[in-house]
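From the methods appendix. Each design record in this collection lists the tokenized structure first, followed by the designed amino acid sequence. Records were kept in a plain field format so they could be parsed without special tools. The example shown here is representative of the layout used throughout.

RECORD:
FOLD TOKENS (418 positions):
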């Protein structure tokens, strides 16, 4: 038999090779023994020799002290496969190392990306409440699961680990959180910290894994406890005897039938006392559309009595916005802890408008800044009906200032016989 051309070397031969030079194993794989210096034996390494366009190139495969003969053959085989595909293995390795280095330089964990995005976006948020809401939901639900993960490694399964536990129980929060996850991952993609599809996207992705928010929320809607409208006059009389900015905030909230956060964030720049209109910008509205509130005589009187030492109409005693707990604290001191400010300002008004007035339902819905459910109604009522709503709000303020005769007040939970 002739001398074999492949796999010429053996582990023992590799160990015994001491003379400087190249020892072929076949298919371009060589053991290279370096020159000895003094008492030190020359180092041993593996190289793969190949030709591309007539030019011979050597590709190092590692030290023979670390890479075994079998491993060197595997590396050589991989390089030969690249050559068969027309790829220079040395250039390919350089590109891989370059991409790896870039990936390491651009690597960011999810929490870093979240904080960076909030910093970048806060200029768009006129209300500091948005930053607090983003930070609070991320710290509560997302960071414990995703915070320290490389943002490039986050996939659908990781997103589901965050959303699934709260999707049914706290769907409104979960839906907002999903949007925030999607935004942060999109920010990371634009900044080249990750690649590929956004695993937090809803359409044609998570909508196949989670029930639609509208269906979940329809079955789990929470109603804000409210006063009966027959009690509002006596309640407002007691409220007006209370001192403090929180009491005035609650009074104004009831007179304008607005949401607590809209009143807490109200600024003097939004209020035109001459026109008797409070214009709440779209950014601060739940529905994302500007809302004009006609001010009744009592609402204007309340505002005129408040000193203007702050841009906020109802500032906290030490500056900044009043806590969202402030109206609830007033109710508690009044012995009304069983009801909410939101319910008393809005649900009580809605019941009164439906049961005690001839104002159209659509007008009351407009006063509450509710989107009309009927597309036909919405199409025909593109205006905000300000003049008509002014009459409605004046009637509501008058009713709030009326304390019915004790005999006419219905006990809780009872109705007049028809």
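DESIGN:
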């Amino acid at each position: 038999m002739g001398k074999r051309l492949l796999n010429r070397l053996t582990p023992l031969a590799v160990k015994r090779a001491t003379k400087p030079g190249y020892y072929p194993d076949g298919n371009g794989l060589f053991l290279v023994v370096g020159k000895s210096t003094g008492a030190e034996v020359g180092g041993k390494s593996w190289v793969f020799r190949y030709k591309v366009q007539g030019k011979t190139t050597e590709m190092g495969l590692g030290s023979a002290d670390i890479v075994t003969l079998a491993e060197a053959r595997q590396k050589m085989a991989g390089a030969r496969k690249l050559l068969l595909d027309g790829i220079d293995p040395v250039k390919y390795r350089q590109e891989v190392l370059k991409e790896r280095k870039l990936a390491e330089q651009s690597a960011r964990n999810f929490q870093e990306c979240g904080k960076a995005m909030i910093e970048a976006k806060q200029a768009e948020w006129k209300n500091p409440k948005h930053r607090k809401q983003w930070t609070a939901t991320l710290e509560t639900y997302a960071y414990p699961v995703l915070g320290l993960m490389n943002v490039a490694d986050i996939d659908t399964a990781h997103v589901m680990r965050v959303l699934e536990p709260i999707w049914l129980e706290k769907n409104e929060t979960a839906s907002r959180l999903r949007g925030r996850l999607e935004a942060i991952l999109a920010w990371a993609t634009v900044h080249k910290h990750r690649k590929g599809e956004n695993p937090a996207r809803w359409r044609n992705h998570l909508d196949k894994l989670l029930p639609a928010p509208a269906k979940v929320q329809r079955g789990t809607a929470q109603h804000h406890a409210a006063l009966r409208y027959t009690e509002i006059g006596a309640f407002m009389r007691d409220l007006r005897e209370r001192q403090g900015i929180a009491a005035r905030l609650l009074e104004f909230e009831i007179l304008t039938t607005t949401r607590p956060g809209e009143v807490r964030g109200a600024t003097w720049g939004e209020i035109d006392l001459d026109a008797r209109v409070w214009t709440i910008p779209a950014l601060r509205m739940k529905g994302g559309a500007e809302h004009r509130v006609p001010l009744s005589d009592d609402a204007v009187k309340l505002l005129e009595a408040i000193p203007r030492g702050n841009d906020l109409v109802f500032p906290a005693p030490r500056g900044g916005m009043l806590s969202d707990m402030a109206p609830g604290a007033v109710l508690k001191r009044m012995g009304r802890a069983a009801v909410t400010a939101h319910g008393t300002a809005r649900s009580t008004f809605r019941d009164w408008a439906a049961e005690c007035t001839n104002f159209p339902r659509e007008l009351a819905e407009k006063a509450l800044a509710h989107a009309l459910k009927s597309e036909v109604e919405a199409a025909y009522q593109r205006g905000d009906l300000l003049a008509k709503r002014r009459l409605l709000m004046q009637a509501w303020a008058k009713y709030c200032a009326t304390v019915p005769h004790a005999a006419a007040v219905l006990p809780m939970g009872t109705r007049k016989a028809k």
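APPENDIX NOTE: The chain has a mean pLDDT of 85.
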